[in-house]
Prior knowledge:
Blueprint: H1 22-35, E1 45-49, E2 68-72, E3 75-80, E4 82-86, E5 91-95, H2 100-116, E6 120-124, H3 127-134, H4 140-155, E7 157-165, E8 172-180, E9 183-187, E10 204-208, H5 210-218, E11 220-224, H6 225-230, H7 235-247, E12 255-258, H8 259-266, H9 273-290, E13 296-298, E14 302-305, H10 320-324
Helix pairs in contact: 1-9, 7-9
Amino acid sequence: MSNPAPAEQPDQTAVEPIRIDRQRQRLVNFATMREMEEPGSEPERGFSARLWAQVSLPYREPKNVPYWERRNGDVTLTVRPALIYNEQTKTRHEAYPFGVIPRHAMTWMATEAYRTKDPELDLGKSMRDFMGKLGINANGQNSKRVTDHMRRLLGSQLSVEGLIVNEGTGDPQGIRSSYFQIADEVQLWFSAREEQDNPGLWQSRIRLSDQFYQSIINAPVPVDLKILNALGSSPMRIDQYIWLTHRMYYLERESRITWDQLNGQFGAQFARSRTFKERFIKNLQAMQIVYSGLNIDVTDRYLIIKPSPTSIPTISGFKRRKAIEGGGQESLEA
């Protein structure tokens, strides 16, 4: 009688299943759904002010500094914090806008202003209503965060400085500065009861400053709102997306950008340039999942960007020359 065959032992060299983090899975799901859409389907079109394709707000709250500064070539954005009044302590404290919420809020403002051709924006009758417009989950914690960040954003003082270049010689001849706030007038009537979707007695409104409004109307940057939402809770990914899709509107040949240049524009809050580079590349990998046709290469010294489709088609009335104008000399008005 033959002995029974020994039981098969598990293969110790079996490959572990690939684990995909939640954010990457979200991006993959978005890209899959996008591929399944009917040919010619219109994306959810939004707009950004051109300024935010050049420089950006802080990722984290700056601590104990009198102003915040970001540089992109010869262009410098300076942000001075808002003075926020605390009703309970009867005191004021300085507070900067930072993170994701101000970015979503400014995209909504630019989209609404361009759509209505009106600097006065209606935020809605309740906090829940406004949070829905921003694509933020409506709950008590988020409503407090939105109110706080709106006060920080709308109360901050901003300035943009850039060199004026002699067109004949190409030499710097001076500095042009623009000083502005996002809004001239703000009326916020959000309360705890409104978080439960009860309408308020007054509607909340913002009247954009003329400089900021004109910068939106004269040179909007079209963006895909669904892509912005898919990119999730990373303010740096949002900034990279707006910057790249704007560059593709006027990029005609390959462009090489050093990591030091990118670090100055995007990475001011990273202690080490190597940490910035790793984060930037990781964000690019995530972006390529949802931004079809993005043509970029990464080397040790450069990010190489090549002419690619914009992430959203241009619309009638948005002239490509508006993206080209000011391609060298950036300013709020460009």
